[in-house]
What does this fold into?
Amino acid sequence: MKVKKIVFSPTGRTEEVASIIAKNLSDDITKIDLCNPKLNFKNQTIIQDDLTIIAMPSYGGRAPQVAIERLKQINGNNAKAIIVCVYGNRAYEDTLAEMEDAAKDAGFKIIAGISAVARHSIIPKYASGRPDAKDEKILAEFAKDILTKNQDKIAKIPGNRPYKKTSKIPLVPKPNEKCIKCSICAKICPVEAIDPVNFKADPKKCISCMRCIDKCPENAREVNKILVKAAALAIKKACSIRKEAELFLQE
Ligand SMILES: Cc1cc2nc3c(=O)[nH]c(=O)nc-3n(C[C@H](O)[C@H](O)[C@H](O)COP(=O)(O)O)c2cc1C
It folds into this structure.
C-alpha cells in the first residue's frame, strides 16, 4: 500500500509526527507540501488506493486557514484519509473538525483522526523534546490499529461547529542585526509575507507560524519577547500537564 502525506508543517514537528505514522503504515511514502506557495494544488494526483495522511498544526484551536484553502484545492478522489492534528500541549479544540470538513469537501474519505503533541513552536519550553520515544510508541500502535480495523467505516472526529473563533496573533518576526540578507526567510515563507529586499514581514499576510525564525541559519529573526512571555504565562496552566496522543476511529 502506498502512503501519501499531505502536510503543513512550518517548523517541522507536524512533519515529524506524520512521518512516524507513515513509516508504520508503509515504506512507499510520497508527500505534498502544503507550505509551498508555488505548488499547483489542483494538479496534484491522489490515487484512489493511496492511504493519505493529512497533517496540520493547531493554531488557536483551529486549522491554519492557508493549509485548509490549499487542501480544498486537491482532488481527494475518494481516497482514504487519516487526519492528524499536532498541537503544543495546550489544546486543539476544533482543529480536527475543521480538517475533517475540508478533507471531505476535497473528496477524501476520513477513516481515522489522530491528535498528537509536539514542541510549541512559539513557546518551545512547552512540550519540549516532543514527539519523544513514548509518543513514537503510541503513534506506532495507532498505525497498527488503523491497519487492522475495517477501513470502510467513517471515523467519529471530535470538535464543534461553528468552530471556535480565533483572533490573529500579533507576533510578526523581524530581522535583527545578525541578518546577512541571505533571503532564505523570504524564500521559505509559506504565505510569501517577507519582502525580499528589506526582509520585513507584511503583518497583514504573516500567519506567525515561526518558520522564518526556525529556518534562519544566522538566528537573525525574532518576535517581541514581552508578547511571547505574556502568551507563555497565559497558557502556563493548560500546558503544565503532559497530554498524550489520541486516536479516533469509527463509532
Ligand atoms: C500561530 C500559532 C498558534 C498556535 N496555537 C496553538 C494552540 O492553540 N494550542 C496548542 O496546543 N498549540 C498551539 N500552537 C503550537 C503548535 O500547534 C505546535 O507547536 C505544532 O507542533 C507546530 O507545528 P509545526 O512544527 O509543524 O510548525 C500554536 C503555534 C502557532 C505558531
